[in-house]
Design goal:
The complex is a heterodimer of chains A (198) and B (627). By secondary structure, chain A is an alpha+beta fold. Helices cover 19% and strands 29% of the residues of chain A. Chain B has 627 residues and is mainly alpha-helical. The chains are: A alpha+beta (198), B mainly alpha (627).
């Protein structure tokens, strides 16, 4: 296998050296191009999720009469259209919100049930004074603030969502129906500030 | 014959040099003779090969997408002949691999087998260990069941905390902002393609370097040197068989690997925990409040892993080696303590009674255990449905979401249980179906449409109790119906009353009544006649064509699907309570469904649940795998 005899042995044969360098460089370049081209084609496709933007949508979650003004949290599913790659779900539950209405207010407050710590579903048992996350023991008061402040595992209070009331005239024309709409924003977990996932 | 074989081997040897290759493979010197303590490396190779073999066969059945992942794993587990065993071996062998790797690693550190010239090989070994962890993590998600889905969700959310590129890393791993098809395709490509082949690459280097340096013999030698073939290889093979035996025991007698209900983004799995070998990380995170989490998730684990990679250089001196052994002990001990803590915290309520002092801890554990139990029941139910009814193209989640048995209690709790209870006092009561509001302010709806229900209402003793018209604040407690039952029912002959009860119950779409409509026709017909003409029901109630407009609810089709649907949509219709309806909301009065409190599907689920119109598996047929 050895080809020592064929190899230029010293520097005097510089044209050959130069020729060898060019050959080596060309080999590396050709090989790299041959392999990197398919790799790059794949890699660009691989990165495609980074180029897609994620937008939040306004969703009707309840009728106002379903949220009595008693300061107690009530859980409502968030159901809306969702597209997962090639599949379109006309109606899919994408999350859950807690609506709370104080006696002095018309508009309820909405908290997303997603824990700001690691994204588990925060639970609430009727009558309890706290929201409790089943995963890493975070607890929140009914106003969404962390029960133990900065000692809590969750880095921030529960995320509040913008609420909008919409009055809809019914066919019968007697009582207007008031709908509760919530802008369902997904926030990044684990951070002190609430940053929407873009 | 043997000369033909010899000739063939000669021919092969001339062209491929097989004798040299075989000699190099098998005739490795084992200083101090073959020993059991040397088996772990080879055992790990066999375990990995087992995963490649079982994995390749599982691949022939598995289909990664949100509508087919759980479904195909279900099919492997319950329908494919021997599928449960194949999946069982793959599942438990993964556990064995993690354990054996820990053992192999601990032994290398303990023996100081990382010292020059083996530093590079030690580093390669650590890389292999991380690849195995990555395989374990990606494999956990692939069944797309509640457990894997929610646990992996948490771990990828934590990964998004990685400094600088965290959110982008998460997006790339998940294949978008949310979990979906592309999470599965990516995890599967990693699990079955990229990771195993990277592992093979490093494994080849690992074994080649091991051969180059020779075995790190444990001193003092207890015997004369021996050869790898057959002495050590025999021990290795026996050890590999032992591991396989243990894995088979688990796969056959351990109940098989779990398959929880299909992943449902809207149905939180409150018992989400990582696999046991990552439980220590889960527990570790509880120590780091707020933004300190980065320390628990990245900085401290990162420092420890860096120290591991530096072990060969730290261990050059005797003190350094002692430090490494100390570090190993602390890590293994720490893992043991954290794992025990996590298990302790989750199972506390199963072991200790509740007291004021431990209330918070007890309740959290109780919630975990309840969630786990409920998840198991849901899983069994969906599996029973999938086996009996097969899976629609929209996936097994559709089975779960359109099943009155599963959805009824949830919808009832959310929409009805602030007033109504649903409790069965019978001995064979199904615990899943018991719903008790803190303060019932309407009738108990258990058993609506059955003869028992009708006979209770027509029982002078029961009509006014809290399960019927005598609930708290009832305007009917001393109303016409209660008064009529208490003053007149006693005068009706028992056999006649029985006929009336049979006839009224037969109006319902309760499955039992639908059967009786066919088998008990005479009695029912007689009862219909009594209701219409003799005992006085129709003085107030409409019943089929007999209508004196008495103002009480229409009994035509009483507790049938249509009757109940129409009633719940709007109980204040003239047909029902009209102006007398004092408390029950109209859940679906509008033609435009978006104005209604309850959509049509939910209404139907509640009604079908109340009437027990759901699939009832034969006893014992629920979820036993097809062994």
């Amino acid at each position: 296998m050895s080809n020592k005899n064929n190899q230029p042995s010293d520097r005097q044969e510089s044209p050959d050296n130069r020729r060898n360098f060019v050959a080596a460089a060309a080999t590396v370049l050709a090989g790299a191009l041959a392999l990197l081209t398919p790799f790059c084609a794949g890699f660009i496709a691989f990165l495609s999720p980074l180029f897609r933007k994620n937008s939040s949508s306004k969703v009707r979650v309840a009728l106002l009469r379903q949220v009595p003004a008693d300061g107690q949290p009530r859980s409502f599913p968030v159901t809306t259209k969702r597209i997962d790659a090639w599949t379109k779900y006309a109606q899919q539950r994408i999350g859950s919100v807690y609506l709370i209405r104080q006696s002095s207010e018309e508009k309820p407050t909405a908290f997303t049930a997603k824990c700001p710590h690691a994204g588990c579903f925060i639970g609430y048992t009727p009558g309890d004074a706290l929201f409790r996350c089943p995963c890493h023991t975070s607890a929140f008061k009914l106003d969404g603030t962390r029960s133990r402040g900065d000692d809590e595992v969750a880095p921030r209070d529960m995320d509040q969502l913008p609420v909008e009331l919409r009055r809809v005239a019914t066919a019968a024309g007697n009582d207007d129906v008031v709908e509760v709409w919530v802008e369902f924003i997904e926030f990044q977990t684990g951070r002190e500030e609430a940053i929407p996932t873009a | 014959m043997s000369s033909v074989l010899t000739k063939f081997v000669d021919w092969l040897d001339d062209r491929a040099g097989v004798r040299t290759i075989l000699r190099e493979m098998f005739y490795e010197r084992v200083p101090g003779g073959a020993r059991w303590r040397y088996v772990w490396g080879s055992t790990l190779v066999v375990v990995f090969l087992t995963q490649m073999i079982t994995g390749a066969f599982l691949w022939m059945f598995y289909s990664p997408s949100a509508q087919t992942a759980w479904e195909s794993v279900f099919y492997i587990q319950y329908e494919v002949s021997g599928g449960w065993l194949l999946r069982g071996i793959h599942h438990y062998m993964a556990h064995a691999m993690v354990m054996l790797m820990g053992l192999h690693f601990a032994q290398v550190v303990w023996d100081g087998a990382y010292r020059a010239p083996r530093e590079l090989n030690f580093v390669i070994g650590l890389i292999l260990m991380h690849i195995v962890f990555a395989l374990a993590l990606t494999g956990y998600l692939l069944p797309w069941d509640q457990k894997g889905y929610w646990a992996t969700n948490v771990s990828t959310n934590i990964a998004s905390l990685a400094p600088v590129v965290g959110p982008e890393m998460r997006k790339l791993a998940v294949g978008g902002a949310d979990y979906g098809h592309h999470t599965l395709t990516r995890f599967f490509a990693l699990h079955a393609g990229i990771l195993p082949w990277t592992l093979v690459l490093f494994l080849v280097a690992h074994v080649a370097l091991f051969r180059r340096h020779g075995l790190h013999a444990k001193q003092p030698s207890r015997a004369a040197d021996a050869m790898f073939w057959p002495d050590q290889l025999l021990k290795d093979s026996v050890a590999a068989l032992g591991v396989l035996g243990a894995v088979l025991m688990y796969a056959i007698y351990g109940g098989g690997p779990e398959l929880t209900a299909p992943a449902d983004p809207s149905n939180p799995y409150n018992a989400a925990r990582p696999e046991w070998y990552f439980l220590f990380l889960f527990q570790f995170l509880k120590w780091f409040p707020g933004e300190l989490e980065v320390w628990g998730a990245f900085v401290i684990p990162g420092l420890i892993v860096t120290l591991l990679f530096l072990m060969p250089w730290i261990g050059r001196s005797r003190a350094g080696h002692l430090f490494n052994v100390g570090l190993l002990t602390v890590i293994l001990g720490g893992i043991a303590v954290l794992t025990a803590q996590a298990v302790w915290a989750d199972h506390y309520a199963a072991w200790f009674p509740r007291s004021d002092a431990n209330a918070a801890r007890f309740d959290a554990s109780q919630a975990f255990l309840a969630a786990e139990e409920q998840a198991q029941r849901e899983a069994q139910r969906v599996i029973a449905l999938a086996r009996a009814q097969k899976i629609p193209p929209t996936g097994a989640l559709t089975l779960a979401r359109t099943d009155p048995y599963l959805q009824g209690p949830k919808l009832f709790s959310q929409h009805c249980a602030s007033c109504h209870s649903h409790t069965d006092d019978g001995e064979s009561a199904d615990p899943d179906q018991q719903i008790v509001p803190p303060e019932p302010r309407a009738p108990n709806l258990f058993g609506v449409g059955t003869r028992t229900w009708v006979s209770n209402i027509l029982d002078p003793k029961q009509v006014n109790d809290s399960d019927h018209f005598g609930y708290k604040g009832s305007p009917f407690a001393d109303g016409t119906m209660v008064d009529w039952v208490q003053s007149n029912v006693g005068d009706i002959a028992p056999d006649q009353l029985e006929k009336v009860i049979a006839a009224l119950a037969a109006e319902s779409d309760h499955p039992g009544q639908m059967a009786l409509r066919k088998s008990d026709t005479e009695k029912i017909a007689a009862g219909v006649q009594l209701i219409k003409e003799e005992i006085g029901c129709t003085d107030c109630h409409k019943f089929h064509e007999v209508d004196y407009e008495g103002g009480a609810p229409d009994l035509t089709g009483y507790m049938s699907r249509r009757w109940l649907l129409s009633f719940i949509r709007n109980p204040a219709q003239e047909r029902f309570y009209g102006e007398n309806n004092d408390r029950m909301p109209a859940f679906g009065p509008h033609d435009n469904p978006s104005l209604n409190q309850l959509d049509d599907q939910s209404l139907e689920l509640i009604v079908d649940w109340l009437l027990t119109r759901w699939y009832k598996p034969e006893r014992g047929a629920a979820a036993a795998p097809s062994k």
